[in-house]
Specification:
The protein folds into two domains: 135 residues, Quinone Oxidoreductase, Chain A, domain 1 (Alpha-Beta Complex); 123 residues, Rossmann fold (3-Layer(aba) Sandwich), CATH 3.40.50. 33% of the residues lie in helices and 15% in strands. The protein has twelve helices and nine strands. Helix 4 crosses helix 5 and helix 4 crosses helix 10. It starts with a strand and ends with a helix.
């Protein structure tokens, strides 16, 4: 995810101009396949081969080339740091549109990474109560700073905790934001409730008992990426509807980009060396 300032435009660009600061939707849709034309743009047949920063050069460079239709002008109220997260927020807004969270809902978020953080902020604004789970000590402290109830699943039984937290009801909505704990999510949701498996990890498998889904009328909601949600996300940031202060822990220049990975405990130098071999 990235944003930037337009420094040059092609001859077929009609809506963007030099000097515009723009957030970029890095998932390029073709606009012509059946999925696109039926409104399910997240399932575009070209998504897997066209994503900026994945299949094409992205934002880890001073300059990059972006199709005009992927650019969304940022207002002055959104600085460059926040502008980088418009596309991230767009995926979460798509999730919120799908969940249709209500003021009397009890909400549980499994995992307090960037996605869990954003869902938790929405839940605090909308739902009756919200609790999150997290194992990382730093993220646990951030969750507490945000005024959230947080449990460490390595220290407590979160199924018992959500049962107590909701007066024996369990959660109306469980957002699984880690990609590896759908089983716990299904244990924590109330009959008739909604489970949103939002985290992604293709290496994870789990066992689901179909009879329990049917018997307890559980709604498992699948979605992918943002879907016409870049503009709403810009509006949310512009109006300061989310507490984004604790979200950012460090700002690093492109010149020091490798340090960002080192702060995360990742060593990408062997990968860079392999890419530079003839």
């Amino acid at each position: 995810e990235f944003c930037g300032e337009i420094v040059e435009v092609g001859s077929h660009v009609h809506h963007m101009k030099i000097g515009d600061r723009v957030a970029v939707d890095n998932n390029i849709r073709c606009g012509f396949c059946d999925f696109c034309r039926m409104g399910l743009t997240s399932q575009c047949v070209d998504i897997k081969t066209s994503a900026l920063g994945v299949m094409r050069d992205g934002g880890y460079a001073e300059y990059t080339i972006v199709p005009e239709k992927q650019c969304f002008v940022l207002p002055d109220e959104i600085d460059d740091v926040l502008g980088t997260q418009v596309e991230t927020l767009a995926t979460v807004v798509n999730g919120m549109n799908t969940l249709q969270m209500l003021p009397y809902d009890y909400v549980m978020v499994i995992g307090f990474g960037p996605i869990g953080y954003l869902f938790s902020q929405f839940a605090r604004n909308i739902a009756a109560k919200v609790a999150v789970t997290e194992i990382d000590p730093f993220r646990i402290e951030v969750a507490r700073q945000c005024g959230l109830t947080v449990w460490n699943p390595e220290e407590v039984n979160v199924v018992d905790k959500i049962n107590e937290f909701t007066y024996g009801r369990k959660a109306d909505i469980v957002i699984e934001a880690t990609g590896n704990d759908l089983a716990t999510a299904l244990q924590c949701v109330t009959p008739g409730g909604k489970v949103l498996p939002f985290g992604m990890d293709s290496s994870i498998t789990t066992t689901v008992v179909p009879n329990e889904i049917t018997r307890w009328a559980t709604k498992i909601l699948g979605l992918y990426l943002g879907q016409n949600t870049m503009v709403p996300s810009i509006r949310i940031f512009r109006e300061n509807r989310l507490n984004m202060g604790p979200f950012f822990t460090k700002v690093i220049s492109l010149d020091d980009g490798i340090k960002a990975f080192e702060y995360l405990g990742l060593d990408i130098r062997p990968w860079i060396a392999s890419r530079n071999r003839p």
